[in-house]
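Chapter summary example.
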Amino acid sequence: MNRVRTAVTAAAIAGSMLVGGVVGATLYGVSALTAAAAPTAATPSPAAGSPSGMFVPNETAAHEATESAAREAQENAGQVPTVP
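The structure predicted for these 84 residues follows.
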C-alpha cells in the first residue's frame, strides 16, 4: 500500500507540474502576442503656438532695456543666452 501511495503522490506532483507549465506557457504566449500587437504611441507633433526648437530673442523695448551687453551679444549671435 505504501508503494501505491508514493506512486500516486508522484503522479499528482508530476501532473500538476505539467499542467502548471502548460498554463504558464499559454499565458506568457498570450501576453507576448498582446504586447507585440499593441499600437505604439505616436510622437506628438508640436502645437501651433509652441516653439520650433529655434531660439527667437525677445526684442521688445522693455526687455532690451533690462538686459546686459553680454546677453544682447549672445542673442545677436543666435545663441541661447547663458548670462543674465
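To summarize the output: The chain is about 60% helix and 0% strand.
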